[in-house]
Amino acid sequence: MESPAPPASTTPRQPTVDGPRDVAPVLRADAVTRVFGDGAAEVVAVDGVSLEVGAGELLVVKGRSGSGKTTLLNLLGGLDRPTSGAVHLGDLELGDASESRLVETRRKDLGFVFQTFGLIPVLSAAENVEVPLRLLGVDPAERDARVAELLDAVGLAGHAAQRPPELSGGQQQRVGIARALAARPRVLLADEPTGQLDSMTGAAMMDLLVDLVHREGVAAVVTTHDPLLMARADRVVELHDGRVKEPDAA
């Protein structure tokens, strides 16, 4: 049986469209374009996208399937390099970084949440959350404390010893969120994190994400095509055919 989710907010947040901000961004994309193929087979998946997100802010990127959301997230997370334009994580330009620097950056500064959960089935919930800390060589006592803190934060303190097949979809996604935050990353990237969850569980998951992003001070970018989830964001941008769609005039 699924354990109760952390309390959801009773009042939906009022997201705003992307616009000028006073706080220096943690993550910034400047006129980023990604082209696949060439000639007649050329596909422009992301076309001149500029956006930024600050610490403790959750930015939702919305758009239909095929709008370029996943490609953009891959560029923001250093999993792919832009054809033109630049992605900056603080002072680091991801597109110019070496592969070894990107691996180090992804371990220390970037947390990823996947639609398919991405957990290791033979490891317990606690062991899955612990993986990033082991990769960074964190002291065992500190690892144990951080894992316990996060499992409690996502409402799974009583499920630490269970493996993913023994958990519900919502519980597995909560483990995935805890794992993504384990190393205290500067940026959290989530690709359709509620895509495999029912609407009620998905709404609770977004409330959990918002709470943890604000509590941990993480700059978060979440992709979704579900309009019900956008009310829980701090800001929203919309992609259409790889481009940022300008908001309708009032």
TrEMBL record:
> What are the entry keywords?
ATP-binding, Nucleotide-binding, Transport
Chain spans, region Disordered? 1-22
User: Which Gene3D superfamilies does this entry report, sorted A to Z?
Assistant: P-loop containing nucleotide triphosphate hydrolases
Task: Please give the SMART domains that the UniProt record associates with this protein.
Answer: AAA
**An MF annotation (GO) of this entry:** ATP binding
Annotated SUPFAM superfamilies: P-loop containing nucleoside triphosphate hydrolases
Q: Which InterPro entries match?
A: AAA+_ATPase, ABC_transporter-like_ATP-bd, ABC_transporter-like_CS, ABC_transpr_LolD-like, MacB-like_ATP-bd, P-loop_NTPase
User: Could you tell me what this protein is called?
Assistant: ABC transporter ATP-binding protein
Q: Which organism is it from?
A: Microbacterium candidum
Specify the taxonomic lineage: Bacteria, Bacillati, Actinomycetota, Actinomycetes, Micrococcales
